[in-house]
Amino acid sequence: MTKIFLDTEFTGLHQKTTLISMALVAETGEAFYAEFTDYDKLQITDWHKDNVLAKLWVTNKENIETKDDLLYVVGGSSTIRAALQKWITQFAFVEIWADVLAYDWVLFCELFGGAFGIPENIFYAPFDLATFFRLKNIIEPISKYDNDVKRFAYAGASMDKQHNALADARVELACYKKMMNEK
Ligand SMILES: [Mg+2]
Fold first, then answer.
1. Distance CA 61, CA 45 (A)
2. DSSP bridge pairs for 71
3. How many whole angstroms from 164 Cα to the centroid of ligand 1?
4. Percent of the chain beyond pLDDT 70?
5. Which residues surround ligand 1, an ion (CB under 5 A)?
């Protein structure tokens, strides 16, 4: 069984949101990264332009990562679904982790036409990094947004790539490893 850390960027925190980008990073080093061309442009705000679209490094042709274990794809949802279906076959069985994953997980399932359509080698239930932080008392809520933990700082990562899905998924893996090593 392989743990895979998922992150997505999308067009808004609401039910009609659409995928902008998606990354899956395996604990064993393999990575998948996709930038979607068919997200709903009408939902794009200035925040998305500055924080998400500006960090789509393939579309923007900048800072492209060239690691051998990375597969990246740019295209519409059907192209990305096909690439991901093929990429995931290299693993015998996987479980998916993500951070505050309600939107990520629904969008991941929707890419495959719903939860019953996800590949057979993926466990049906995702696991939430935020819950793991809570159980470790690293997150101890006192009001709506207070006493959360800054994931990039916790992972010791540079903030400049935050909201790039691949960078975010790698930070998730780093946070997971760090918590596993803490008593
Ligand atoms: Mg993200």
1. 22
2. 32
3. 6
4. 99
5. 7, 168
